Amino acid sequence: MRLRSPSHYEYATLTDLCMRSKAVWGYPDDILEEFRAELTIAEEDVESSIVIVADDIRGIAGVAQVALDGDTAWLEKLFVEPTRLGEGTGQMMYVWACRVAQDSGARDLVIDCDPDAMKFYLRMGAERDGEAESPSISGRMLPRLVHRLHPMRSR
What we know:
The structure is a single chain. The chain has one domain: 3-Layer(aba) Sandwich (Aminopeptidase), CATH 3.40.630.30. Helix content is 33%, strand content 32%. It is built from 5 helices and 7 strands. A 7-stranded mixed sheet has the order 1-2-3-4-5-7-6. The longest helix is centred in the middle third of the chain and has 15 residues, at 89-103. The chain is globular. InterPro entries: Acyl_CoA_acyltransferase (IPR016181), Bact_Acetyltransf (IPR050832), GNAT_dom (IPR000182).
């Protein structure tokens, strides 16, 4: 498995992966469509944040996006191809996100996550830190998690 930057011609494929991954939680089609803008990978995302693709000989396994804002980093996306769940791709991308955030000087990685994904993030070391409103559905509250990053040591 390797991590790499996405090619511009893959944005639609990566968006479809995000939609399929979100559908794993059993959302009806009309609600999934409400999430589409939030799950879209576009040129602006790649220009304003850090986006990686996890792939191997079998193809694309996942996508993750981290946005940086001073000493805070935001995990905007972390989605695994549903047929690849349980292979460790999510863990690998999450560790990558923490390292990228830490290397960029962030003290915290903030995750406004799907309620069904919360157990994964808690298992990876994030802690519950309140709620945030969904960017897709007004009034829908999401768990806000924070992964406290250890400061980089001087060498």
